[in-house]
Each structure stands twice: as structure tokens, then as C-alpha cells.
Amino acid sequence: MSEGDPLLASGRRLIRGAFAIAMVLAAVATAAAGPYTIPDAELAANFAVEWGTGTLAKTDVAGPGVEFLMTVPDKTAVGDNYPVGDQAALLWDPVLHHFTSLAAYDSIAVVIRYVSGPAGSDVDVHLFLNTGLTGPSGNPSDEPANDTFWGGTWVTLAVGETRTVVLDFSAAEAYNAADNPEPHSGAGQAWVDGDVHAINDRDRHEVSHLGIEVSDFDGDTGGQAVALLLNVPEPATLALLSAGLAGLLLRRGRAH
Fold first, then answer.
1. Other C-beta atoms within 10 Å of 73: how many?
2. I want to staple 44 with a disulfide (CB 3.0 to 4.6 A). Which of 57, 60, 153, 242 is the partner?
3. Are 104 and 216 part of one and the same domain?
4. What is the CATH number of the domain that holds 208?
5. Is it the case that residue 18 has pLDDT exceeding 50?
């Protein structure tokens, strides 16, 4: 077969096409493995105080972001317990046939700004979730032991500071996992509460609860209200947008 043979050329085109498709699929798979961000609609519609004596008022601000006006006299959890609201846009679990899955993601990440509070104060924030459905649709069904609470790393925010708060699925604090049955994380391993473990694929398919805990460990808010803006664009993103807008305006100015 010569270099100019039509069959050879056709074969090469097929190989290049298959390679291009494989590269696209790999890029999609890589993109899908990023962090999940709780949508504004879910925060605004369904998050409420679940434990602690703090208070919560919510405002869905113009553009991206939801403001939480809170008092945090103690550790206060706000979240959306089972079933997680439709606005959270969880993915389809092909085993249990419910929209309860975050298996396509490697973490939860929420950008939070401590907008206002007492001068010089700070607040402490972390993300949490529960996995393992415990009713008739669970795996195994009607088994309370399926449930596990997972906590992310605590982050301290000073007034005016913006940080990304993350719950990493590969390294989260596990609670109530000592009795987990198969096929759930740590089954049969008698995990100790508070130890750090990975959330396995089955549990990432069975998300029953999303939440955020806010506290004031050093007490410097004095029980006064604090305002947190969730899903605010990160400073680096804002800088890029500003630079892009400035460049666009410059080009338009030259065109005129």
C-alpha cells in the first residue's frame, strides 16, 4: 500500500477523528470532575436554620450571590435537609433513580465574603453534607445506618475578606460512619467520629443534605448581626472581568 493510497488516507482520517473525539470526551470528563457550587436559587429558597440558636434572613441580591444576615451566638447550621430542593440541581442516580447525586464532582466549593459585622471581628465557616438514604429508596433499603455526616475544613473570615470554602470529597471529616453497611464509605471498618476519609462513589450518589455551619469561635461578634455574601465572584475573577472590560472600552475608543 503506497503513501498515496486512498484507503490509507481514509484510515488516517478515521484515526485522527477517533483521537479528536477521545480528546473531547477526556476534556468533558475532566471538566465534570471540578467542584459543585450550591446554586443561588437553592440557597435563597431552601436554606434555613437547622441547629443552634442563631438567626437567618436571606436576600437574593442582583447578579450572582445570596446575602445571609445572621446572628451566631453559637455554632449555627443552615441547610436543606432531605429531600434536597430541586433548585440544587443534583444529578440523576442510575441505581436509586432519584436526583440525589454529586458523583460527577470532586468537592463542594462556595465563595463567601464577610461583608459586614463588628469592627475587627471574624467568623468561622465550613460546609457539610449527609450521604446515604435511609428510607425505602436507600441502598440497602430502610436502613438508618446508611447515614453519614461529612464536614469540610473550617475557614476563618475577617470583615471584608473573601475566601473559597471547600468540602473535599477525597478528605472530609466523617461522623456516624462506624456502623456503615455495604456499599457505603468505610463499611465494616468502625471509623472513629471526626477522622478524615474519602467519600466513596456510592455515597456521592446518595446526597440527602447540604449545609453550611457558621460560628464565632473567639466571640468577637458579641452576638451582633453579621452579613455574609455567598457565591460572590472571587477577587481574581473580578480583576479579570475588569481588565477585559477595560480592554474592550479601549478598543472601542480607538475604533471611533
1. 16
2. 60
3. yes
4. 2.60.120.260
5. no
Cβ partners under 8 Å of residue 154, min gap 6: 124, 125, 126
Q: How far apart are CA 104 and CA 122, in angstroms?
A: 34
Distance CA 4, CA 89 (A): 53
Question: Which three cell numbers mark 232?
Answer: 460572590
Domain limits at 226? 35-255
Among residues 119, 129, 114, which one has the least CA distance to residue 70?
114
Q: 214: helix, coil or strand?
A: strand
Residue 177 and residue 194: Cα distance in Å, rounded? 10
13, HSE (Cβ side, Cα atoms, 13 Å): 6
For 193-212, how does the pLDDT look when each residue is reduced to its tens digit (9 = 90+)?
Answer: 999 999 999 999 999 999 99
Task: Give this prediction's pTM.
Answer: 0.80
CA-to-CA dists, residue 121 to 72, 110, 155, angstroms: 12, 21, 14
Q: Which three cell numbers mark 230?
A: 455567598
Amino acid identity, position 107? S
What does the alpha-carbon distance between residue 252 and residue 205 come to, in Å, rounded to a whole number?
49
- Tell me the average pLDDT across 211-225: 97
The DSSP secondary-structure symbol of 225 reads -
Residues 12 and 120 in one domain: no
Question: How many domains is the chain built from?
Answer: 2
